[in-house]
Amino acid sequence: MPGLGGEDKVMAGGTPANPAMLVSKSDAVRYLALGDSYTIGTGASSEARNYPSILAKRLAEATGAKVDLTNPAVNGFTTVDLIANELGLVDRLKPQLVSVLIGVNDIVQGRTAEQYRASLVRIYDKVAALGLLPGRVVAISIPNWSVVPAAASFGDTALLRRLTETFNSIAQQEAEARGFTWIDITAASTSATGSPGWISSDQLHPGDPQYAAWAEVIWDVVREPWTSPGAA
To answer: Of 35, 58, 73, 105, which one is least surrounded by beta carbons within 10 A?
Structure first.
């Protein structure tokens, strides 16, 4: 979404591990987080408070393994920007874990639902080509941003809500068609609306407590497939 951009990259390298082997204390787990401001954590007090960093920390604590997080997300990115600037990392890094949260800026920039679908198909197909095991790729919904104070500056908030729901429905359909795990953070994004720090000072992006709430919901879903010895 409009505002300052940024990158949080911890680059991984080396020979790709056996795709069935995830948890190893001697080899780093490669986690690629694709997205926009919500993934880089615009509004958070530090990069450590964005949801991919929280998930990487949880995974390291749960397994004892080193986790190499690559977070190339940039504030304001659409699906088109992700394709141009982030998607190449899929082939370069051969990640073992992938999360994708993208779409709010497609809405802001007036892209249609079908344009969004077409771009998302390119993104999801590239990730699907990795051939990762079930649960290793998660697609995350756009949060309910229509309720934040600054939303009205982007148009009618009821319309923004409907568009967000439409885009999320598309993302869920395309994710599940490829065997990705769909995680809906809509309820979590409004679960403590009005509480201190829930919305950042820009009145648009989440604050630390909201990013933590998202991470909790996501971790509850990925904990088993990302840490289970049976899957590793």
So the answer is: 58
